[in-house]
Write a structure and sequence with these properties.
7-stranded mixed sheet; binds adenosine-5'-diphosphate; binds 5-O-phosphono-L-ribulose; FGGY_C; ribulokinase activity
């Protein structure tokens, strides 16, 4: 049989990345990145210029179609592969990135009469303006003893489907009524590719509290939240929910014309970006924690028993790899924190110096920060610039740096921010361990391990564990392509299971990052201090972060 290939498309926070991979060995024959033309919409709406409130984060669904139009034809062109040799397509997406669509499946923000309403647009995963709804969901679910709540660490996040849908109902009831379905962007893109709406069980499980046997929370629970929500599951969340690797459908004629692929090419149901990365890095058995390190970090772990761990983003049966429980935890901002400092925090002389040296600002800071020993900066930070996802699940918490002096340098601040995110990951690893879900090995993938060696060494030192690094530059997209090959099936030259695909296609680098004992000893002391600050500011000893946020809101209105 001639060679066969699959295309995986990873929709990240800032860009969409397509890879065309050889199904015999997973080699990435070509890849292409399309930056979203509208990026992250967090200040004003495109067109109308309507100003957005704080904590809002939207996207333009048309940008997702641009990724299909630009990156798919480009990977075909660059690869030299014939379209008929591409037998499957898979996509993964940030989640919960949700949008309201009308009865034709069109986003409400495509309707000119609705474009000036922020609620008609895509709510990106990092949209945190539904915290009030999330807090109310948690109160009611806890009071009712809802069985689903412990599976999500005891708290539902404002980043997820139920809180976001309820915010739309509360703030734009007319638009809520005009909504036929709330869809994950992953499922909406698959709908664009196939003409069929097929919800995937991964985003439903982790982001909409759906359970393989119990389904969504029952209508009595929704009614207890708000009588208007009672029919939510049967109406705006309705539709079949399918396991990962299921063939959602085949490429339509129209999409074949736009992408350069053959009509009838198999398309897998969508997936979550971090979850697709797990088989992409070759992890298909328990005990191996995969860190998808980018704008955020998602911590993915397989297990065999259902354990309820504080602040987990969910434990879902078959959620990552069929046959296992899939655990997810995370940190809402990691790369985003470094971006904030590089864009908003460094003094002009750093920009000028980096420009003169012909390097990026990250690289300028990294090189100088690497010259410091652990503890030498005298700084300690809490990595909550975009709230805390795990283990506190509270988007009203904010960032903190302790230890500034008149001599503090930018590279010292940069190092403290890198270290703080490592402490946040150690907190999550210890929560898994203490909760009875073993973590034996660490794997890292995503954009950060490829860009910042100091960061990875600090993670090895802080966690005192060796870290394996994905060989792929686009691990989530590789994983998505593997699911595309499963949707095509072995008879077509694909695979009949994601485990079979992973065994043939996934790879890690020979090089790993190993802990340095002298560093570990100091970081153990710093982590103890991090824990004290974590509990003081995060568990109610002081609500100063929330009071400051309330004063900010009051000043704005
Ligand atoms: N040299 C660097 N060191 C640390 N972070 C970086 C560096 N270069 C870019 N970043 C951060 O990486 C993040 C993007 O990660 P990536 O995995 O490519 O994207 P996504 O989160 O969309 O999947 C951004 O937040 C950016 O600020
Ligand atoms: O929340 C999830 C996965 O559950 C991610 O989609 C979200 O953190 C965004 O991931 P990135 O950092 O953009 O890769």
């Amino acid at each position: 049989m001639s060679k066969t290939y699959a295309i995986g498309i990873d929709y990240g926070t800032e860009s969409g990345r397509a890879v065309l991979v050889d199904l015999a060995d997973g080699m990435e024959v070509a890849d292409h990145v399309t930056e979203y033309p509208h990026g992250v919409i967090d200040e004003r709406l495109p067109g109308s210029g309507v100003r957005l409130e704080h904590d809002w984060a939207l996207q333009h669904p048309g940008d997702y179609l641009e990724v299909l139009r630009r990156s798919v034809p480009e990977v075909i062109r660059r690869s030299g592969v014939q379209p008929e040799e591409v037998i499957g397509i898979g996509i993964d997406f940030t989640a919960c990135t949700m949008l309201p669509v009308d009865a034709s499946g069109a986003p409400l923000c495509f309707d000119p009469s609705l474009q000036a309403n922020p609620h008609s647009w895509v709510k990106l995963w990092k949209h945190h303006a539904a915290q009030a709804e999330a807090s109310r969901i948690n109160e009611v679910a806890a009071a009712r003893g809802e069985a689903f709540l412990p599976r999500y660490g005891g708290k539902i996040s404002s980043e997820w489907m139920l809180a976001k849908a309820w915010q739309i109902l509360n703030e734009a009831p007319d638009l809520y009524e005009r909504t036929d379905l709330f869809l994950e962007a992953a499922d909406w893109v698959v709908y664009q590719l196939t003409g069929r709406i097929a919800r995937n069980s991964c985003t439903a499980g982790y982001k909409a509290n759906w359970h393989k046997r119990e389904g969504y929370p029952d209508s009595a629970f929704f009614k207890a939240l708000d009588p208007r929500l009672e029919p939510l599951a049967a109406t705006k969340l309705r539709g079949g929910i399918f396991p990962l690797g299921t063939r959602a459908g085949t490429l339509t004629e129209a999409m074949a014309a736009q992408t350069g692929l053959r009509p009838g090419t198999a398309v897998a149901v969508g997936n979550v970006d971090a979850h697709a990365a797990v088989p992409g890095v070759g992890v298909v058995t328990p005990g191996k924690l995969v860190m998808a390190m980018g704008t955020s970090i998602c911590h993915m772990l397989l297990g065999t028993e259902e354990k309820h761990i504080e602040g987990m983003c969910g434990v879902v049966e078959d959620g990552i790899i069929p046959g296992y429980l899939g655990y997810e935890a995370g940190q809402s901002a990691v790369g985003d924190i470094f971006a904030w400092y590089v864009e908003q925090g460094v003094p002009a002389y750093v920009r000028d110096a980096a420009a003169q040296e012909g390097t990026g600002i990250h690289e300028w800071l990294e090189r100088r920060a690497a010259a410091y020993r652990p503890g030498e900066t005298g700084l300690l930070a809490l990595d909550w610039w975009n709230g805390n996802r795990s283990v506190l699940v509270d988007t009203d918490l904010t960032g903190l740096i302790v230890g500034y002096t008149l001599q503090t340098k930018p590279e010292e601040v940069y190092r403290a921010l890198l270290e703080a995110t490592a402490f946040g990951t150690r907190k999550i690893i210890e929560a898994f361990q203490d909760g009875g879900v073993p973590v034996e090995q660490l794997y890292a993938c995503g954009g950060l391990p490829q860009r910042n060696r100091l960061l990875m060494q600090i993670y090895a030192d802080v966690t005192n564990r060796e870290i394996k690094i994905a060989d792929s530059k686009q691990t989530p997209a590789l994983g998505a392509a593997m699911f595309g090959a499963v949707a095509a099936g072995s008879a077509a030259g694909g695979y009949d299971s994601i485990v079979d695909a992973a065994q043939r296609m996934a790879r890690v680098r020979e090089e790993t990052f190993k802990p340095i004992p002298a560093h570990v000893a100091v970081y153990d002391q710093l982590y103890a201090e991090y824990n004290r600050l974590h509990d003081y500011f995060g568990r109610g000893a002081s609500d100063v972060m929330k009071r400051l946020k309330a004063l900010r809101e009051a000043a704005l209105h």
